[in-house]
Design brief:
heterodimer, A: 221 residues, mainly alpha, MetI-like fold, 0% strand, B: 376 residues, alpha+beta, Rossmann fold, OB fold (Dihydrolipoamide Acetyltransferase, E2P), 5-stranded antiparallel β-sheet, 21 strands
Amino acid sequence: MDWMALRLSLSLGAWTIAILLPVGIVIGRWLAWRSFRGKGLVESLLALPLVLPPTVLGYYLLVSMGARSPVGRWFEAATGHGLVFSFTGLVIASVLINLPFAIQPMQRAFEAIPRDVREAAACCGMSPWRAMLRVELPLAWPGILTALVLSFAHTLGEFGVVLMVGGSIPGETKTIAIAIYDRVQAFDDHAAGVMSAFLLLFSLLTIGLSYVLTNRARVIR
Amino acid sequence: MFLQTVPALSADTGLTVRLRQDAPIPLDAELVCRPGEVLALVGPSGSGKSTVLRSVAGLYQPGAGMVTCDGRAWFDAARKVCLAPQRREVGMVFQSYALFPHMTALGNVMAAMGHMTETERRKRALDLLAKVHLDGLEDRYPAALSGGQQQRVAVARALARDPKVLLLDEPFSAVDRATRQRLYVELAELRRELKMPTLLVTHDLEEAAILADTLCILHRGKTLQTGAPMDVKTRPDTVAVARLVDIRNIFEGVVLGHDEGEGVTYLGWQGHTFSSRLRPEFPLSAKVSWCIPASHVLLHPPNRPSRGDAENPVEGVITDMLALGETVRVEVAIGTCGASIVMPVLLHVAQRNGLKPGAEVTLTLRAEGIHLLKED
């Protein structure tokens, strides 16, 4: 068992969902209730990572964050180290590839809140901020939870993009999915098996937990 | 016409509404609702009733017009004033109630009292729930309440904010008939304590007549007539209003004369001369539309002579009879030009009098029911 890789994967997942939580809520809520010209285009762009081969996505991320790209140069000037093959670069890539996994369930959850319930909140004197905290988020939270679980589990299992953008630097970019690949390449079937079984169990647990919590939320209503 | 029946729109108490726009939803509405008054906005589906209500609540912003409450502008297109719903102090009962499904009955009511302390909110919410006969059900979630109980929670929640205006958007449409009758009584009792103007949106004329002091007929976004429910129902201004208040007996006649001493206007129709309430504004010999509500058409008992012209007797032949529960809708053809009068007759009366299609009958058109209509 490569504990370092596991810790790195968990850390990457945590950072990813920590960033996607507010981003997903803001974008999901915006897409759920606003109609505007070009909405279909925005939705398509956000859904792109679902259908794009991870290596293609990884290639473009590598190019756009590399030392020769404006973003890469700016980051290096600001921090003293490059963006690609670093944990920060990995977090950025992970957030981008997980956008559809986070936004789509959240958007559906906000869409499911009836318009008159939102209007009732306003007619009850709640400010938009208060209405969001007291009414919208509690009603949308099963969807938000699903989004976070999906993103987290997807982050743990992501391989192609991580390899392209991060490489396999132990303690920096070597995630558990890459560690499993490494162990298989080294004919260390036992370690690969243990890590795979662990990932399987962990994924099952998180998905199961999210179903239980979502169902419990439905029962109350 | 409308402006004669309501006071000037600059009233500094109560609610005044004046809305204008051509698209996307045409609006040409004016209404005034005084404190303690219940005004029913009645019209067919798509007539703009809910849009007017939503404009008052601040949930919809019309192109032009103004909404004032107790002299304060909530919306004034000319001065670019449009307060958010949160700042309008309205209590709104939605058609589907729109309760917060994740909060208990008590939680729903307390949610509308953001301005009070927790203790005050709880006490007042419990008081309100007791007032709408929901004591004991405070901890239930909306899903565990019946339709009638949900409606009561919605009413309690709407009152929780101490609203300056109460808005009811078809609040009885989602409950069964028996529950509806009970809720009518409860609302009628409750409204004795309410000091604010109340706007009730409904497509049900009977409901409006039961609950409202004033009836306002809305059609394609335009307020056509406002007045006491009985007046509007039996004395519509125009043919359009007559149709909207479900008067089927609308005909064309000629003004034969006015007798100011007797308070009578004579109307010629199908060779008959009818007396009706004096309406000197209609010129002599003018063609005029007139109507009579079915409730003012009486069946003459056979073998009993008419007591005179004041009863406006008319002979005809029954062309159709349609049983509708305990009443029968009887259609009687008058004369030879295809005019027919429709009237409800109690089933047992129809049976006792041997009414059947083809039978000759005499009808009485009560003078007080005959009403001359202006052009639309």
